[in-house]
Amino acid sequence: MLSLHTNAASLSIQNNLASNRTALTTSMTRLGTGFKINSAKDDAAGLQIATRLLAQTRGMTVAAQNTQNGISLMQTAEGAFSEFTNILLRMKDLATQSADGSATENDRTALQSEYDDLVKELNNIFSNTAYGGEKLLAAEGKLGSGAVTFQIGATAAETMDVDISSTLGTISGAIGDTGSIGVSGAITTQTAANALITTLSDSLDDVGEIRSQLGAAQNRLTHTYNNLQNMTTNTTDARGRITDVDYASETANMTSKNILMQASTSMLRQSSQMSQMVLSLLQ
Fold first, then answer.
1. Is residue 69 over pLDDT 80?
2. Pairing mode of beta strands 159-162, 148-151
């Protein structure tokens, strides 16, 4: 039907033109940003899932950094106890030498002098070993005051506790002025020196226990780090499949919409000539 007031073809083409223009704008935006989802209207459910995956990924990235910091902290403590072990071994050598019947009083005085300096260094290591400006081994230190909790995951439940405070307290007491290995004149007599050999062996066992705990914790954190890296990689990949644009597919889609836009524009121009046909009937 020819009508002067209603051009059905033009209206239909205008609707399609508007729809194609919206689709073309969306396609060009995706190609320009590289993201398939640029606003909630693009994919509401996908955006929610992608945001959740992003939160998990970022949490795991920070947790991975936490594990490395935790390893560094425990390496600092373990390094201190490595030197602690060397000193205790030397002290045991001195005690063994003083316990021998061939040693003279002058010998024992000289041995005691070195022993006293080693005790001072043990206390120095114990009191002043620090990480990030905070003491580690002393009673008020990070490891000495109780369990240390490391955040090793993206959720509140993913934590790891390291507690060596009890053994640290035992060692601290032993090297004090009234402790079993820190007492004044510990190897000035043959009998005292002989008794101290066993005491020093016990202290070496305590230090070995702490180093073992620290080493085990470091190994666990290393495995935790590796797992976090694996989860981060796969979670990032999953989020990418939701949010990243497929350039091959989207380029083809944009080309299609662009051709439809041009065709619609051309046909809209042709449809406007249909009104002229009404005038030709009136001539």
1. yes
2. antiparallel
